[in-house]
Amino acid sequence: PRAQPPAKVSFEVTYSTVVGQDVRLVGSHESLGSWDSRRAPRMEWTEGDVWRVDVALPAGGLYEYKYALCDSGGRVLQWQRGNNAIVAVGAGQEALQVADTWSGASGSTITSEEGGRLVQNNREQMLVAWVQGMDASIDAGRSQVRQLQVELAETKADLAKAMTTLREEVGVAREDAAKMQQALKAAVSEKQAALVARDEALQELEEEKARALELEKANATLKVKLKESSSAFKDTLATCQKLLDSMAAADDVADDVGLPDLPDLGEDL
User: Fold this and answer.
1) Which of 4, 16, 55, 160 lies 20 to 30 A from 44 at CA?
2) pLDDT tens across 178-193, in order?
3) Which residues is 41 bridged to in the sheet?
4) Cβ atoms of 11 and 53 closer than 8 Å
5) Whose CA is closest to 242, among 229, 253, 258, 255?
6) Which residue from 128, 79, 121 is spatially nearest to 104, judged by alpha carbons?
7) DSSP letter, residue 42
8) Whole-Å CA distances, 266 to 33, 223, 233
9) Can you tell me the distance from the alpha carbon of 118 to that of 96, in angstroms, rounded to the nearest whole number?
10) Could you tell me where the DSSP H helices lie in the chain?
11) Can you tell me the mean pLDDT for 69-92?
12) What whole-number distance in Å separates Cα of residue 119 and Cα of residue 115?
């Protein structure tokens, strides 16, 4: 819950002093000096020897205090008579007016605002009202605690369901990740196999190119040899033709025995 703002508590007490003396409000809270008169707030003198001071005190607390007659350095010369007084600041209370007497706390009056009107009570009535208010605050706090416990139980149940769902989703995600990893491994293996096959195909292509080059060289050599053989054959045929022509001339039968012309085999090659 959000912290409540402090209440403005106005204190006043009547006491006659002399020059060099003042009245201080000393009490249990740090705003009251934590029982150190030198740090306690100095009250302001007003007409009729009425000393007043306003102090901010946290709402919902009980605070002990007492008035002290001090010198200019804050040293206590005389304490207010009687026991320590108690002021009860209720929860949600914004302002209080406390009127005390130097003779003690029995004649004190406390004025507060309730429902838009000022109500004056004695200290005992204020303490009873404070206790009742604190009981109501405690009951409200308990009710809030029970409500928070119910909400906490519901939150725990929702959290347990969310954790179960999350575990299931994590399990599915892990299975999917394992499948993806296997698929990736398979893809890598296929790629590696494809690279090996490509390298083998390239090697075979290079070998085929080498064989084709060798065949081309062998073909060229064969053409040269065939051309040479054809030329020699033509020369032989020409020689034979001459012999036949000579023989035909000698026998006068050149027209009947003449050989046909042979094709030029070198041109076809």
Assistant:
1) 4
2) 888 888 888 888 888 8
3) none
4) yes
5) 258
6) 79
7) B
8) 136, 9, 10
9) 10
10) 123-251, 254-257, 265-268
11) 94
12) 9
**Amino acid identity, position 243:** L
CB 28 within 8 A of CB 80: no
Contact between 90 and 131 under an 8 Å Cβ cutoff? The reply is no
Instruction: Catalogue the long-range contacts made by 199-203 (C-beta closer than 8 Å, 24 or more residues apart).
Output: none
Q: How many CB atoms lie within 10 A of CB 266?
A: 15
**Phi/psi at 28 (5° precision):** -80, -25
Q: Count the Cβ atoms, other than its own, within 10 Å of residue 252.
A: 8
Query: C-alpha angle with apex 143: 137 to 147, nearest 5 degrees?
Result: 140
**53 vs 108: CA distance, rounded Å:** 16
Please give the single-letter amino acid code of residue 30. Answer: E
pTM of the full structure: 0.53
Tokens encoding 136: 């109501």
